[in-house]
Each structure stands twice: as structure tokens, then as C-alpha cells.
Write a structure and sequence with these properties.
The complex is a heterodimer of chains A (about 140) and B (about 150).
Chain A lengths: L33 H66 L38
Chain B lengths: L33 H14 L1 H13 L7 H21 L1 H13 L8 H15 L24
Helix pairs in contact in B: 1-3, 1-4, 2-3, 4-5
The chains are: A mainly alpha (about 140), B mainly alpha (about 150).
Subcellular location (chain B): Mitochondrion inner membrane
Keywords (chain B): Disulfide bond, Electron transport, Membrane, Mitochondrion, Mitochondrion inner membrane, Repeat, Respiratory chain, Transport
Protein name (chain B): NADH-ubiquinone oxidoreductase
């Protein structure tokens, strides 16, 4: 029996085996991490809100200053207006007395209301308009 | 004189030239325009506090103008007194400040530089200090802060 069969050379791994396959991604690292970006955004917003509240505080204090400036002047302005109103009212009562002197039992300057509470005049007491025979042209 | 467009509405028709009743004690009116009053307001408020509060309490009793004439005269005299004292001691600073207020829409915020000199002069001459009531005590008051915006 002749042995003319060739010995088959089987494809085998190299001695020592194949080197390991690097299958994981090896991308260069880009930019800060998500947590860092989140923290940065939070920081920017916190600074912004801090400035907003500073601005609101300043505006509130400016409004307070303006309001108190007016409050301090109110008594003086009311006092002046009161004197003028009193003077005009007294003059109007005098004119009324003069105009109604022929009517018996007429009380000049009597309130039209049946009470003691002060009610300011709704219609301005104007000397010219109260003259007898006055005609507005 | 009439407002343009209101020729039928003459302001002279509404003036009552009658003098006040003779039994009323005479008092000068303040006769100041808005900007000087605003400039002096905090000093009127602090110096005349007693008279002002007395007057407002009186007004609270009765709104009738003749009820509080005596208190009102004190208020007016005190305000005139404050303005005259300011005028006598710090005339230039006062003028600079109220003219600034006049030009800047009566906004305190736009006139901090003249106000600083004005307040310093009044504190030196009369010992008056601007104080805004009800402002938070843990922070400097608004006129002593550095403004956030120019």
C-alpha cells in the first residue's frame, strides 16, 4: 500500500496566539463632562438671578425714597390748599348772604346735607358766575 | 390767559381775588416750585415731623379745612423755616441739586453727585441727616449705595 497522500498543512494561529483585538472606541476626549456643563449653566443662572434680585432691591428702595419724599411734603401742600379753600368758601358765603339778603329765614352757607360730616363743594364757587345777571357769552 | 384750544375756558373766570377773612392770622405761603421742595423734602419731613404729624392727626379727625387751620399754619411756617435755613447755609449746593432734579425728571437716582455734596453740607452746617423711613436697617440707604446703573 503506497502512501501517496500528502500531509495537509492546517492553517493554525501563529505561535503564541493572536494578539487581542482592540474593538473598543478610542475617540479623543472632547469638552467638559455633562455634570460640569450642568454646573456651569447653573452657575451662570445663579449669577444672573443674583443680579436680578440686586436690581429689584435697588428699584424698590428708589421707589421707597420717592414715595417718602412725597409723603413728607403732603402736610405742607394740604395746609396750603386748605387755607385757599377756606378763603374761597368764606368769600362765597359772603356773596350768598349779599345775594339772598331779601329772603327771610335764609341761612347763608348752610350745608345741603342733614349731617355734621364735612362734604367738599362739588361745584367750584366762582365769584364771576355768582354775580346777579351774569351771562356766560 | 387760556390753555390753547380752550379759549372759552378762561382761567381768570375761576380766580377768586377776595382776601382771607381778617380774623385769620397771616402766614406766608411757601411759594416754591416742585424741584426745590423735592430736594428739601426729607429735611422738611425730619425737622417738621412733630408739626406734620400733628396736622395729619388733626386732618384725620375732620377733613373740614377750617378745622386744622392753626396746625396748618405751623406746618407752613416750619417748611418755610427749613427752606430758609438751607438757603442760608448751603445755597450753592441746594441750587445745584434742585436744578439737577429739574433737568432729570425729578429723579433722585440721576442726581447722586450733587446730592452727596448737598447732604454733606447740610450735615456739617445744621447736623441734618437724610433718613428714609422703613428702609432695611442691615443695608446702607439707597442714597449712600453705589448705583448699579449709571
Amino acid at each position: 500500500m503506497s502512501n501517496n497522500t500528502t500531509t495537509a498543512t492546517q492553517d493554525l494561529p501563529p505561535k503564541g496566539g493572536y494578539s487581542t483585538i482592540h474593538y473598543e472606541r478610542r475617540l479623543p476626549k472632547k469638552g467638559p463632562s455633562g455634570l460640569a456643563m450642568f454646573a456651569m449653566c447653573g452657575g451662570i443662572m445663579a449669577y444672573g438671578w443674583y443680579k436680578v434680585y440686586k436690581g429689584l432691591d435697588e428699584r424698590r428702595e428708589l421707589d421707597r425714597e420717592n414715595a417718602w419724599s412725597r409723603i413728607h411734603l403732603i402736610p405742607m401742600l394740604i395746609a396750603e390748599a386748605d387755607r385757599d379753600e377756606y378763603r374761597r368758601k368764606a368769600a362765597a358765603v359772603e356773596r350768598e348772604r349779599e345775594i339772598m339778603k331779601d329772603v327771610p329765614g335764609w341761612e347763608a352757607g348752610k350745608s345741603v346735607y342733614n349731617g355734621k360730616r364735612y362734604v367738599p363743594d362739588v361745584i367750584a364757587n366762582v365769584p364771576l358766575h355768582q354775580q346777579p345777571g351774569f351771562k356766560k357769552d | 390767559m387760556a390753555i390753547p384750544g380752550y379759549k372759552h375756558f378762561k382761567s381768570e373766570d375761576w380766580v377768586d381775588p377776595t382776601p382771607p377773612p381778617a380774623d385769620l392770622p397771616h402766614v406766608d405761603e411757601v411759594g416754591s416750585s416742585g424741584a426745590p421742595l423735592k430736594s428739601a423734602s426729607f429735611f422738611i419731613g425730619s425737622v417738621c415731623q412733630e408739626y406734620n404729624e400733628d396736622f395729619m392727626l388733626c386732618k384725620n379727625e375732620d377733613r373740614d379745612p377750617k378745622h386744622c387751620l392753626a396746625e396748618g399754619r405751623k406746618v407752613t411756617r416750619c417748611a418755610i423755616d427749613v427752606l430758609e435755613k438751607i438757603q442760608a447755609n448751603c445755597a450753592t449746593e441746594f441750587r445745584t441739586h434742585w436744578q439737577c432734579l429739574d433737568n432729570k425728571n425729578q429723579s433722585f437716582n440721576k442726581c447722586r453727585a450733587p446730592e452727596k455734596e448737598y447732604n454733606a453740607c447740610l450735615f456739617k452746617a445744621l447736623g441734618w441727616k437724610k433718613n428714609i423711613p422703613d428702609a432695611p436697617a442691615n443695608k446702607p440707604q439707597i442714597h449712600e449705595r453705589i448705583p448699579l446703573t449709571k
